[in-house]
């Protein structure tokens, strides 16, 4: 057994359903946002009673809950912050994630016993800055995404700070996410949680004195999209992060589907546990194959290893890779009838070859030969969102298993 601290696996929870899936698929902690003060305004987000329910569910499974309060607030945005902080403390959240010094000050005054993590939005890129924040009572530093692993390790070595780092998910072309493109183009402020992801649109250059004349920059027949960031994936390098003493491995994706979060979590869970169980690190092909099944952009290791041949922007395409489609979630299984009840999320029909997967890796595939609606009528297809469908299956399933198909 390796005598190192096992890092926390931290998962996004865009709503209560995603929180439950994250907990059951292997997260040690989840992070979520309330209806206000969060940088993901278009995620489902949580009312305070939902946060309370989420905390109860998570704590029953020994999973921690962190709440983001990471906007850069204007004066009007501070109204109600103190009472919201008290509500979070009262329902038992384990920490808040903040970037703005004013928010941090109010939190220290209002709920002094509540742990505070410094958001990546605070752009902490050196040990002196980390030491400053630790002196202000910050409990954990979320590293800026622009740091190399050596730089992160130096910060930890010189300050002793708890360090949290992103290991998987969307990258941002702006400095740790502080972007004005969305606000400038469509009036949606990324720093107040309303990012339109304008950096992922396709662009051409226009010279000031030649309006209407476009200058495409081609690398090949598909062209180059200079703003087009790739997705981070560090599953091959987790041992290096563990050996560097990183305390928490963070997955990006509060706006993503439950299928996305579940798929990533179970691969990273296996990878982390394997390192500590086997005293060595070897990534199995099936763990990586799973990461290729979710909707993603080409993968990169970002800035961690300063590899100039591993750019964080894609010069080939602005398109997502979507090899599999998320079809539905398992609600129930009837042992006598060998029948599973599915809540539909995308259309499926007779003849589709489907795959079921769950936290325990007992995946299997089969073809839909017959299916029924919730009234017991035979149907040919399930085209309606959240439609309840029953399908005979060849293997026992449990609630929270996921159904998908290859496109």
Automatic annotation (TrEMBL):
InterPro entries: Peptidase_U32, Peptidase_U32_C, RNA/ubiquinone_mod_enzymes. The keyword Protease applies. GO terms for molecular function: peptidase activity. Residues 323-404 form the Peptidase family U32 C-terminal domain. It comes from the Bacteria. Pfam families: Peptidase_U32, Peptidase_U32_C. The keyword Hydrolase applies. Belongs to the peptidase U32 family. Keywords: Hydrolase, Protease. One of its GO terms (biological process) is proteolysis. This is Putative protease.
């Amino acid at each position: 057994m390796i005598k190192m601290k096992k890092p926390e696996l931290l998962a996004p929870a865009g709503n209560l359903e995603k929180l439950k899936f994250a907990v059951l698929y292997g997260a040690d902690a989840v992070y979520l946002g309330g209806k206000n003060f969060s940088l993901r305004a278009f995620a489902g987000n949580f009312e305070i009673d939902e946060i309370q329910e989420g905390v109860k569910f998570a704590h029953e499974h020994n999973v921690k809950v962190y709440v983001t309060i990471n906007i850069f607030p204007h004066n009007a945005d501070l109204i109600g912050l103190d009472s919201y902080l008290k509500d979070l403390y009262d329902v038992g959240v384990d920490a808040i994630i903040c970037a703005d010094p004013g928010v941090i000050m109010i939190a220290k005054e209002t709920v002094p016993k509540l742990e505070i993590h410094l958001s990546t939005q605070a752009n902490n890129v050196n040990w002196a800055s980390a030491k400053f924040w630790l002196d202000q009572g910050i409990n954990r530093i979320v590293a800026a995404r622009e740091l190399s692993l050596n730089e992160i390790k130096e910060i930890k070595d010189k300050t002793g700070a708890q360090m949290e780092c992103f290991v998987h998910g969307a990258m941002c072309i702006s400095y740790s996410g502080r972007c004005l493109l969305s606000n400038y183009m469509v009036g949606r402020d990324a720093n107040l949680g309303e990012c339109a992801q304008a950096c992922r649109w396709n662009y051409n250059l226009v010279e000031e004195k030649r309006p209407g004349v476009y200058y495409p920059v081609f690398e090949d027949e598909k062209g180059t999209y200079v703003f087009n960031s790739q997705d981070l994936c560090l599953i091959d390098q987790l041992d290096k992060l563990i050996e560097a003493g990183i305390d928490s491995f963070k997955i990006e994706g509060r706006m993503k589907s439950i299928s996305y979060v579940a798929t990533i979590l179970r691969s990273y869970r296996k990878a982390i546990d394997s390192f500590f169980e086997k005293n060595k690190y070897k990534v199995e092909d099936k763990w990586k194959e799973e990461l290729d099944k979710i909707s993603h952009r080409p993968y990169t290791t970002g800035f961690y290893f300063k590899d100039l041949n591993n750019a964080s922007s894609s010069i080939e395409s602005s398109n997502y890779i979507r090899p599999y489609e998320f079809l539905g979630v398992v609600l129930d299984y009837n042992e006598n009838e060998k029948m599973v009840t599915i809540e539909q999320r995308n259309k499926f029909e007779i003849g589709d070859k489907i795959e079921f997967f769950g936290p325990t890796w007992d995946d299997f595939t089969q073809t839909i030969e017959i299916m029924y609606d919730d009234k017991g009528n035979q149907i040919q297809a399930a085209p309606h969102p959240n439609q309840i469908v029953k399908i005979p299956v060849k293997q026992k399933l449990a609630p929270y298993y996921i159904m998908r198909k290859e496109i």
